[in-house]
Amino acid sequence: HNITQWKFLKKIQNDKKISFFAKNLLKKKIKNNGAEVFAKPARIGLESPPHQDNFYFCLEKGQALTAYIPLNDQSFENGALAVIPGSHKHDLDHRSSDVPGFSSGIDLTEDQKNNIDHYSLKTGDLSIHHCNIVHLAPANNSKIPRLNIAIRLRSLTDTTDVRRLEKYKRFRETSVRIA
User: Fold this and answer.
1) CB 67 within 8 Å of CB 126
2) Is 145 helix (H, G, I), strand (E, B) or coil?
3) What predicted TM-score, i.e. pTM, was given to this entire model?
4) I need a surface site. Which of 1, 28, 152, 156 has the fewest CB within 10 A?
């Protein structure tokens, strides 16, 4: 990894405007909880299964957001982000995923499958989603990779839910690992 890329990621991760949006959306003081770069290769055909981020975060009140920034234009064809409106109101059961690189997923009802909002995003757009919203990405079967940064922001006052954390630990111990 080159130093310029890491400096760019650090700068984006600590962007004051993104923090301002998160603070106003959550109506709480927030802290940056890290950032990740995702790359969905072209023509590989891997999806990101439907999931809720708080399944991994294990927060008691679910007061967290993900700021999603595409590094290239994204649409259904190259596996852009998609969400299920209203799904943040439900804490759904996750199962082990058979998609390489992804540990869990949610089995959607027919109603949920028919209610998916697929995004089309331009390079540098900002999409912010709640940690309990079910989100996913269709397979990338295009000639264009999907590249993005995900910045995790959470309330300073939300604490780890021990029950959720224990459930997640049990899940990790028993889930199937696909290389």
Assistant:
1) yes
2) coil
3) 0.85
4) 1
Tell me the one-letter amino acid at 82.
Answer: A
For 51, counting Cβ atoms within 10 Å of its Cβ (0-12 exposed, 13-18 middle, 19+ buried), the class is buried
Residues present in the chain in total: 179
Query: Could you tell me if 40 and 79 are in contact, meaning their C-beta atoms sit under 8 angstroms apart?
Result: yes
Supply φ then ψ for residue 89, to 5 degrees. Answer: -80, -5
Query: Are the beta carbons of 61 and 132 closer than 8 angstroms?
Result: no
C-alpha span between 70 and 98 (Å, rounded): 25
In angstroms, how far is CA 29 from the centroid of its own chain?
21
For the record, the structure tokens of 170 come out as 């049990």
**Of the candidates 63, 74, 89, 85, the residue with the CA atom closest to the CA atom of residue 38:** 74
pLDDT of residue 4: 59
Write the DSSP string, 100-138: TT--EE-PPPHHHHTT-EE--B-TT--EEEETTS-EEE-
| pLDDT tens digits for range 34-61 | 888 888 888 877 889 999 999 999 999 9
- Please list, in sequence order, all residues whose beta carbon lies within 8 angstroms of the beta carbon of residue 136, skipping any fewer than 6 positions away: 47, 48, 49, 50, 51, 81, 82, 83, 116
